[in-house]
């Protein structure tokens, strides 16, 4: 019985790892793209309010 449980657990783990690699490849990269875009937008807006002789 323990061997069957181990076999099922290993199969489930293998399937979960396959799924998680696909999820992190797609959604994680999309989230990074949006975060970088938001950071660039914030920086561009912040540059407009900074004085020219800051240094």
Task: Describe the overall structure.
The chain is mainly α and 55 residues long. The chain has one domain. The protein has one helix and no strands. The radius of gyration is 23 Å and the shape is rod-shaped. It starts with a helix and ends in a 6-residue tail after the last helix. 0% of the residues are buried. The model has no long low-confidence stretch (mean pLDDT 90).
Condensed summary:
By secondary structure, the protein is mostly helical. It contains one helix and no strands. The chain has one domain (about 1-50).
Tags for this model:
mainly alpha, 87% helix, 55 residues, 1 helix
User: From N to C, what is the helix and strand string?
Assistant: H
In terms of structural class, how would the helical and strand content be classed?
Answer: mainly alpha
**What summary fits the major beta sheet?**
none
Radius of gyration: 23 Å
Give the DSSP E fraction (strand runs of 2 or more residues). Answer: under 5%
**Average predicted confidence as pLDDT:** 90
Layout of helices and strands, plus pairs?
Elements: H1 2-49
């Amino acid at each position: 019985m323990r061997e069957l449980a181990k076999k099922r657990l290993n199969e489930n783990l293998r399937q979960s790892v396959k799924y998680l690699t696909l999820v992190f490849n797609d959604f994680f990269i999309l989230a990074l793209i949006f975060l970088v875009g938001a950071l660039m937008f914030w920086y561009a807006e912040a540059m407009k309010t900074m004085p020219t002789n800051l240094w």
